[in-house]
Amino acid sequence: MAELLTVDDPDDPRLSDYTDLTDVELRRRREPAEGLFIAEGEKVIRRARNAGYEMRSMMLTAKWFDVMRDVIDEERAPVYAVTPELAERVTGYHVHRGALAAMRRRPLPAVDTLLAPAAGDVRRVAVFEDIVDHANLGAAFRNAAALGVDAVLLTPRCADPLYRRAVKVSMGSVFHVPWTRLESWPDDLGLLGAAGFTTAALCLSDRSITLDALVTRAHEKLALIFGTEGDGLTARALAAADAHVRIPMDAGVDSLNVAAASAVAFYATRVTRP
């Protein structure tokens, strides 16, 4: 059982995991290097623990002591009790949810391990190329979890799905969809082909077919590829994909936000499972 430890100094080294949470560039460098990520809010903390992530520590304001009592009683990691004012000084923002936990990252699986038959019935995969907006990535992970995507692959320059903002927007869905990061892009699309997947790039190219047409082809294994928010997919990724696919639009709208597009594509191509 963890003990509540009162901390009243914002420079206390025990709170170092929580410092400067609004400094995106600092946290993007620091968190993967130190093997940690921050879970914010009761539901997200519980979902991280339920997914098997180990807690390093927890920082709570008084209003959350009773709400999180079962977690406190089960944990051996230290739990730091702070005032809302001190939490704001440490993190750099008003922590209105009042509950933060520093969690340990797990090693990412190899792509072939994620796609192997031993990983389960992997038939729908999402590939995100260079999506740098954490909110969009978090929303896309939530869509993937809700709409039957079995695994997510990220290109090397894609945002960190375990960054606090991405985790928060996903409502913890990032903990429940197996994912990993590709090492060589777009060369690693060959790994999907070798595993029996048809790769379909969402784009507006001259050769693109409609999403409805893709659905009629009834691919057993399908990997949907989504590009960055501004420029879409790179030319090399488009050249490497087996098919180009567009979502038909009305009212002169040419495209959707990447998170919205992923929801439409995931739903349309979902697999009916027992």
UniProtKB/TrEMBL annotation:
GO terms for biological process: methylation. Keywords: Methyltransferase, Transferase. One of its GO terms (molecular function) is methyltransferase activity. Coiled coil: none annotated. Residues 125-267 form the tRNA/rRNA methyltransferase SpoU type domain. Signal peptide: none annotated. This is TrmH family RNA methyltransferase. Pfam families: MRM3-like_sub_bind, SpoU_methylase. Residues 26-92 form the MRM3-like substrate binding domain.
